[in-house]
Amino acid sequence: MSQARVNWLHTNRRALSLGIVVLSPALAVAVGVMATSANEWLRWPAAAAALLLAYAIGLCVYLMWQPRLSYANEQLHVHLRPGAPIRVPIEIVECFFLGQGPALLPRLFGSRKKAEETSTIVVRLAESAEQWKHVDVKPALGQWCEGYITIRGTWCEPITNELLKRLNGNLVAAHREIRAKAQAELATESGQTLPIREQEVG
Q1: Among 1, 44, 80, 177, which has the minimal tally of Cβ within 10 Å of its Cβ?
Q2: Are strands 142-145 and 117-125 parallel, antiparallel or unpaired?
């Protein structure tokens, strides 16, 4: 049975909102030039700029609603690269904890001489899950190595103790739900096979 996706960790909406705020006036100017200028040499570049800016704003809006982590169908969906999320069986996810790592922010004209640090969320996977030890992800978003998924705080919602408690609470609830489902299925199977055994004994 399909289960609706539940967002566990959002992207950095503040940065994306700032991008929309910065780009919107430029889009308005480009549209104004395109609509009012009688000069063809100005209208075409303005139209091209308007299309690019509209695309960039639309992308920011789209990314605002794309999570870093979500949960559905007994799987943790990890969004650390373009395209479809990486679907990890929730039963091999053990816990979430706080970490520290490089922010990997772009350096503008060599303005940053020292690498900046950021808080990270680390997801520990079961040691027995060999196939999930290493997965290629986008370095700016995180790292996946030796069974640990590291999500950089640069591109996710602010990392706080309350957030970590919420993530671990969601994980405990998901594990509990899976155990309850397995017990219910086992009880159902036992109830179905019992009459057959009684008939065989009789």
Answers
A1: 1
A2: unpaired
Q: Helix 40-64 crosses helix 13-36 at what angle (to 10 degrees)?
A: 160
DSSP 153: G
Give the length of the chain: 202
Residue 142 is encoded by which pair of tokens?
């995180």
pLDDT in tens, 97-136: 999 988 777 664 455 556 688 999 999 999 999 999 999 9
d(CA 91, CA 39): 63
Nearest alpha carbon to residue 150 among 106, 105, 102, 114:
102
Residue 199 pLDDT grade (very low, low, confident, very high; cuts 50, 70, 90)? very low
Show the 3-state SS of 75-138: EEEECCCCCCCEEEEHHHEEEEEEEEEECCCCCCCCCCCCCCEEEEEEEEECCCCHHHCCCCCC
Task: Give percent of the chain with pLDDT exceeding 70.
Answer: 85
Task: Return the sign of the alpha-carbon dihedral for residues 178, 184, 188, 190.
Answer: positive
Q: What is the reported pTM?
A: 0.74
* Structure tokens belonging to residue 21: 């705020």
Nearest to 150 by CA among 120, 119, 126: 120
